[in-house]
Amino acid sequence: MSESHCILVLADQLSWDNPALVDARPGIDTIVMAEVAEEANYVRHNRHKIVLLFSAMRHFAQVLAERGFSVRYFRLSEGLPDLEAALKKIVAEVPVSRVRVCAPGEYRLWHSMQTWTDRLGVAVDVLEDTRFLCTLEAFNDWADGKKQLRMEFFYREMRKRYQLLLDNGEPEGGKWNYDSENRVGWRNQIPIPARHDIVPDAVTTEVIDEVLDAFPNNPGDLSQFRLAVTHADAEAQFEWFCEVALPSFGTYQDALVEESPWVFHSLISMYLNCGLLKPLVVCQRAERAWREGRCSLSAAEGFIRQILGWREYVRGIYWLWMPEYAERNTFDAKRPLPEFFWTGETDMRCLQQALRQSLDLGYAHHIQRLMVIGNFALLAGLDVKAVCEWYLAVYVDAYEWVELPNTAGMALYADHGAMASKPYAASGKYIQKQGNHCKQCRYNPSKVTGTDACPYNSLYWHFIDRHSPLLGKNARMGLIMGNWRKRNVDEKAAIVAWAEEWLATL
Ligand SMILES: Cc1cc2nc3c(=O)[nH]c(=O)nc-3n(C[C@H](O)[C@H](O)[C@H](O)COP(=O)(O)OP(=O)(O)OC[C@H]3O[C@@H](n4cnc5c(N)ncnc54)[C@H](O)[C@@H]3O)c2cc1C
Ligand code: SF4
Q: How far is the CA of 200 from the centre of ligand 1 (A)?
């Protein structure tokens, strides 16, 4: 008789490629899945995220059981404090020789797993997460000895490794990167298609009721829950994206749009991150769309770059430098998070819209996260940890391995430039160029001081001014620093004073 294993499947590991599951034996091993208080509460998660994960877990558990596996599923109502408590129960009930689990995506949990063997009195194998396209070892090898890491070079290696958009080893079209074609601002050029929504089934409806009861104070308007919770539905939503939205994805990737939270984005990060979709499959599907003439090369390349490049790169960065990475704070930013981050009540139209949809739907696209919310947090000098915690809480796709490098590194430049070669700081002019929010706003993007001046403008110069010793050392900031230095002293003083007055109202 073979020894029985206990296989722990976490909420973001719902995939058949989960290394703990690939060798699982029906009738012999016990698969454990658990909704536990610690994981549900370590930040004030958006209710969309909790419903997505609980419902997807319950659906996955059902399929596992149908395939003959013995599944022990703990619901939140059973009151287990944490994953270790779930394992303790199983180890006491079932004679298992070892516990197997895929490595988690967050350092917090990985760290606690290191003590499980001792605490449970049974061997615990934490297996490498093989669902990513670059192993941590390969990333570390690539990073080793480099003075500066840049995503673009990593991405080229990955294109070659996976033979994506290549023509005899050279990039299709002659260029590796078509980003310059992906920056068109929104002026209502074309209609935005309605999304392919999923209507909640009985399992999801039950989870929605339970989550409304258990998390009354968390963000998330569940009357708008339309996410997929099964592999098949996630694939159907992605297929819709490839057929309908991908052709316009590249062009309007950086657009800020009053009429739609999603524009032409794919809305698949939450599925990739919890195992309902596979990164290589979606990249190959996008390449096929281009080869079949259904989208431009810049659309396919822009999409593939995000997944094959950025997604893998931020994960590599996270594990390369954690836990020290989470302590970085280049500008010593400490201002408390304004209350409106939790209510969306600000009269800055672009920020209001980005915050409200983040809170209500758990979704904002990249430019909203980076250049509207993140840019505001950077310019206003908001506390890095508080901002990171907010991002981790509100988004349906948020896990620390991907959230932290994007927020602390890319948006806040808190990691001393490890993620970005210069801060993504911008004035209201950029937001005006990229979209149509300013027309609906009580502020004027062309004004720098005065009650109707766009706050991004004076905040931008205030940021440049207060960090000029550090920013002056960055060659890519040379032009802008020169512009500021040359300005009239009284004019500069008036801008800085106005920004300070405005900041005091936060
Ligand atoms: C401050 C900040 C915080 C972020 N936090 C998260 C987060 O918690 N979880 C998360 O998955 N993404 C995060 N991102 C990256 C990105 O904004 C989201 O992946 C994207 O908006 C998800 O929407 P989508 O699926 O429609 O993406 P699309 O725009 O359609 O892009 C396709 C896919 O590319 C991947 N991708 C794109 N950009 C990035 C990136 N910078 N890093 C990693 N993957 C990327 C995602 O998997 C995404 O689904 C963050 C970005 C910023 C600037
Ligand atoms: S004027 Fe400023 S605050 Fe208002 S929408 Fe434009 S950029 Fe945003």
A: 24
Q: Are residues 203 and 282 in the same domain?
A: yes
For residue 3, name the pLDDT band (cuts at 50, 70, 90): confident
- With the most atoms of ligand 1 within 8 angstroms of its CB, the residue from 402, 404, 424 to mutate is 402
Are 255 and 185 in a shared domain?
A: yes
Pocket test for ligand 2, best of 346, 429, 438 (most atoms within 8 A of CB): 438
Among protein residues, the one with the nearest Cα to ligand 2's atom 6 is 438
pLDDT of residue 182: 80
Cα gap 492→218, rounded to integer Å: 42
Q: What ligand is nearest to the CA atom of residue 394? A: 1
Q: What is the pLDDT of residues 402-459, one digit of tens each?
A: 999 999 999 999 999 989 999 999 999 999 999 999 999 999 999 999 999 999 999 9
State whether 63 and 157 are in the same domain: no
Q: Quick one: average pLDDT of 376-384?
A: 98
Q: How many helices (H) and strands (E) does the chain have?
A: 25, 7
The two structure tokens encoding residue 387? 């901002």
Residue 205 counted as domain residue: yes
Residue 2 has pLDDT above 80, yes or no: no
277 exposure class (CB count in 10 Å sphere: 0-12, 13-18, 19+): buried
Give the C-alpha separation, 464 to 492, whole Å: 11
Residue 57 lies in domain: 4-127
Residues with CB under 6 A from ligand 2: 348-350, 428, 431-432, 437-438, 441, 443, 445, 454, 456
Expressed in angstroms and rounded, the spacing between residue 503 Cα and the centre of ligand 1 is 29
| Strand, coil or helix: 164 | coil
Residues 33-55 have a mean pLDDT of: 97
Q: In this structure, are strands 166-167 and 170-171 parallel, antiparallel, or unpaired?
A: antiparallel
Residue at 329 is within a domain = no
The structure tokens 């950029």 sit at 430
| Among 479, 477, 484, residue whose Cα is nearest residue 499 | 484
What is the position in ligand 2's atom list of the atom closest to the CA of 437? 5
Ligand 1 site, residue 366, Cβ cutoff 6 A: yes
pLDDT of 45 > 90? The answer is: yes
User: pLDDT-based confidence at 1, cuts 50/70/90?
Assistant: low
Give the tens place of pLDDT for each residue, 304-339. 999 999 999 999 999 999 999 999 999 999 999 999
Mutate to test the pocket of ligand 2, among 256, 258, 349 (most ligand atoms within 8 A of CB): 349
pLDDT at 147 over 90: no
Instruction: From 287, 321, 355, give the residue that closes a domain.
Output: 321
Taking the centre of ligand 2 as the mean of its atom positions, its distance from the CA of residue 378, in whole angstroms, is 16
